[in-house]
Design a protein that fits this description.
- The structure is a single chain.
- This protein is extended.
- The chain contains three helices and no strands.
- It has about 90 residues and is mainly α.
- It has helices at about 5-10, 25-30, 60-90.
Length: about 90
Amino acid sequence: MMFFQPAEAGVVPGSLQGASEDFSYFAKEVPGLYIFLCVTPDGEDPANAAPNHHPKFLVDEKALVVCTRQLRLWPLTFNEQIAQLTADNI
């Protein structure tokens, strides 16, 4: 569920990527959500951008506004989303 217009916020679909964290292990025990954010500044090709933990890594702070808004609203609508998923699968 999105609470903004993706095109206006600069949100574009990305490819599925496996995380190298222990998230999948933990998610077996407790349901969770892993979010991948691309915060590459406008005009910079993400394929050529410096990766996380690199001294030249740059964050487009406008992306953090979009993410923060989404993260704040997901818990508020969680029950509604679960009810919809349940209804869709009955």
